[in-house]
Design a protein that fits this description.
The chain has helices at 12-18, 77-94, 106-118, 130-136, 140-159, 171-177, 221-226, 244-253, 268-274, 292-300, 329-341, 343-361, 363-380, and strands spanning 4-8, 34-39, 58-63, 98-102, 122-126, 162-165, 206-211, 233-238, 260-263, 280-283, 304-307, 323-325. It has two domains: 4-185, Glycogen Phosphorylase B (Rossmann fold, 3-Layer(aba) Sandwich); 206-361, Glycogen Phosphorylase B (Rossmann fold). The chain is built from 13 helices and twelve strands. The strands form two sheets. A six-stranded parallel β-sheet has the order 3-2-1-4-5-6. It has a six-stranded parallel β-sheet with strand order 9-8-7-10-11-12, sandwiched between helices. It starts with a strand and ends with a helix.
Length: 383
């Protein structure tokens, strides 16, 4: 089978450090014998620690560092074309049967240039609602930057053989932009480590888990405040971010330091193995999408409490399999009390979550879907 060229903006060393490694993530179904990962940065991750992400394939790592705004006069497309030339030469040497972009950023620009010059097909996954981040740009430079990037990203999506939104709430954005070649393809999760929850008997104290980066859109402050009047619970927070120090101060303010544990990171294998041992997963997320950190507990059957977000709701987070509450200390407290006191409701919620998630993003199913899509795109291109 032909080689696969994966182009990413990610700093893989950080992903390794956080333990977020998923087997065959870059080579679903062991479809390819060679996987070349091209990073648009100067990161030099340890290849051995990425071996499992490409399965049985040979792994090759490459860098083509994205120059700064000044060198490209604000990321002018004609100067970015000069930057893309080494990527085109690399692809000409590798002769991949397919290019895969995880996320649509400047990595998508490289894929589109290779496609234009060499005719190699490419697929692009989108993992975030772009307008969420555009709206957060408050400086004049930030707004100008995103206007430039918008143009590049839109051209990339227009020319892609297929766009792969990783959750359903991205569909309205794609439809509004007029894109027609797309298919929802959920992220492949760690199926080798996730375990179905069998026992819904509560621990003493009740074990609560929250996973996610700690910043404005995912601030778990109200979750911490909620447990102030729930003395028989213990909350574990896994994640890091700019709000970390403030969250630790809030535990002191609420006098719950002894009932809240902070872990900056945990190996994904270890986390997935432990998920079903917790009693309740609780999360705050204001973004229009479902994070991987929430998909995983749902797939184990762990009961989940999430906030009702402002505006459009997330299709994958609905009342029949997730308990939705207001993003207030009272909202989370009342939701936790309901799950703690009503064993039948708690167990039914978890089992419905398991069935829903298994239908939507069971690892074997999602991995097979990517294999099917890759084969179809390459066949259409004659590769």
């Amino acid at each position: 089978m032909a080689a696969l060229l994966v182009i990413i903006p990610d700093v893989l060393s950080d992903i390794i450090k956080k333990g977020e490694i998923t087997p065959r993530y870059y080579n679903p179904g062991n479809l390819f014998e060679e996987v070349h990962i091209l990073m648009t940065n100067n990161d030099k991750p340890e290849p051995q620690k990425l071996r499992s992400t490409v399965g049985n394939a040979k792994l090759f790592l490459h860098n083509i560092h994205l120059p700064g705004s000044k060198r490209t006069l604000g990321y002018k497309p004609w100067l970015l074309k000069v930057w893309a030339r080494p990527a085109v030469k690399l692809a000409e040497k590798i002769k991949p049967g397919l290019i895969r972009c995880h996320g649509n950023w400047f990595n998508g620009f490289l894929a589109s240039r290779i496609n234009k010059k060499l005719g190699i097909p490419y697929v692009v996954s989108i993992h975030t609602q772009p307008e969420d981040f555009r709206g957060e740009a408050i400086s004049a430079f930030g707004k100008k930057y995103f206007r430039t990037v918008d143009f590049i990203e839109e051209k990339t999506l227009q020319n892609a053989d297929i766009i792969l939104p990783v959750y359903a709430s991205l569909l309205p954005y794609l439809k509004k932009k007029g894109y027609t070649k797309y298919e929802v393809a959920y992220n492949v999760l760690n199926g080798e480590s996730l375990k179905e929850k069998k026992n819904y008997t509560l621990h003493n104290p009740v074990s609560l888990l929250s996973v996610g980066r700690h910043f404005r859109g995912k601030n778990p402050e109200n979750i911490i405040r909620a447990i102030k009047k729930l003395p028989d619970v213990h909350l574990t927070l896994i994640g890091d971010g700019p709000y970390q120090g403030n969250l630790q101060r809030i535990t002191q303010e609420c006098d719950v330091e002894n009932r809240v544990s902070f872990l900056k990171a945990i190996n994904n294998d270890e986390l997935c193995n432990q998920l079903s041992d917790y009693d309740i997963f609780v999360v705050h997320n204001e973004y229009l999408g479902i994070p991987k950190a929430v998909m995983e507990p749902l797939l184990t059957g762990l009961p989940v409490i999430a906030n009702r977000r402002k505006g459009e709701s997330v299709p994958e987070l609905q009342d029949d399999h997730v308990l939705l509450v207001e993003n207030t200390p009272e909202g989370y407290r009342d939701g936790l009390k309901k799950l703690i006191e009503d064993h039948e409701f708690r167990e039914k919620l978890g089992r419905r979550a398991y069935e829903f998630a298994r239908e939507k993003w069971a690892p074997a199913k999602t991995e097979a879907k990517y294999v099917e899509i890759y084969k179809k795109v390459m066949a259409q291109a004659g590769n």
